[in-house]
Design a protein that fits this description.
By secondary structure, the chain is of the alpha+beta class. The protein is 23% helix and 28% strand. A hairpin with a 5-residue loop joins strand 1 (14-15) and strand 2.
């Protein structure tokens, strides 16, 4: 069940051999207003806690973000090894990655997308802190797509880190990954 690998070093650009790459940014230096709004919503719900509870989420208060939201369940086997299941996938996220609702992330994605997305989810699950993922798409024939995602912990009612809240924005490479917010 487990797909745990070595942690991906944060705050370093990781290049793919054939071009493109990604960064896990712990400073949360958002370049896109959509991911910034996701962070602001999460931060406001969190207050002084490590993260908001999943039950604190109110879809009616984030209607414009919903197409970009993904909720991930953290599942553990008897030995404590982690895997991840897609609980909910917004329509824009599903259009870009395929609808993985109900699937394990390791079965839904493959190759470069699995490596970087799984790495961001692992980072949150291991550290209990949010991270920004900025990337050049690794899908075949889609290297022109760029993305920025906000990945953050959601807690159970008992206070355990059981879910990851994601808001992901994808845009044309006419606007570079580190362009000004929403440029292009």
């Amino acid at each position: 069940m487990s797909f745990e690998g070595a942690p991906i070093e944060p705050d370093v650009w990781h290049e793919y051999e054939e071009g493109g790459g990604f960064i896990l940014d712990e400073t949360l230096a958002f370049r896109r207003s959509l991911t910034r709004r996701g962070y602001d919503y999460w931060r406001d719900l969190r207050g002084d806690a490590a993260g908001p509870r999943k039950s604190d989420l109110d879809p009616a208060s984030i209607v414009p973000l919903l197409p970009y939201v993904v909720l991930i369940d953290i599942i553990r086997d008897a030995n404590g090894a982690r895997d991840y299941r897609v609980r909910l996938m917004g329509t824009v996220a599903a259009a870009n990655h395929g609808d993985g609702t109900g699937m394990l992330v390791s079965r839904h994605l493959s190759g470069k997308p699995l490596y970087r997305i799984r790495g961001a989810i692992d980072h949150v699950a291991r550290n209990g802190r949010p991270v920004r993922l900025a990337s050049v798409s690794g899908y075949e024939n889609r290297e022109w797509l760029h993305g920025e995602g906000f990945y953050a912990p959601l807690l159970s009612e008992a206070g355990g880190l059981d879910h990851v809240f994601i808001v992901a924005d994808i845009w044309s490479s006419a606007a570079p990954v580190n362009a000004a917010p929403d440029e292009g």
